[in-house]
């Protein structure tokens, strides 16, 4: 299954940005066990590359394990070496270019029409509409007028209540950080994380 197909099937990317590497690793494993196979670990989290390495060793080669906040070419190379098979960027730049050059599945951060055109021309896997909260579902719907084909994944301010509105506006999936993860990646309650995961899964299955 390629990334575009996985996004359309699962409809949810879990985004982890933790201050505690051990808690972040436990969060990855809890999400995977709960049936959320698309997991992004932000490089802005503490010791993120170690979290990616440990998770890859536990989950095996087939799992979708992403590195997020990839900004530089060095970020992209280090993420790939750690075992990431999905690269997520906050915008266009050297990190995205290196990821595409390596043939890695990419979720490229865009906001404006010009950025959509530039990213799509690079042959990225999907477009991360970020920060989606700037315009909300109405903005995504407007973007899809001139750009009906790219796979859009809104990220930023997406919670369980707004996820369905983004799907209705044409999103193939949504990326969710704190509304899903809460404080789990900082040492919080994993049982509460599992409850939130089930809530998002119910929305995405609908």
UniProtKB/TrEMBL annotation:
InterPro entries: Aldlse_KDPG_KHG, Aldolase_TIM, KDPG/KHG_AS_2
Domain of life of the source: Bacteria
One Pfam family matching this protein: Aldolase
Pathway where it operates: Carbohydrate acid metabolism
Record flagged with keyword S-adenosyl-L-methionine: no
Keyword annotations: Carbohydrate metabolism, Lyase
Record note on quaternary structure: Homotrimer.
Family: Belongs to the KHG/KDPG aldolase family.
Protein name: Aldolase
Organism: Streptomyces kronopolitis
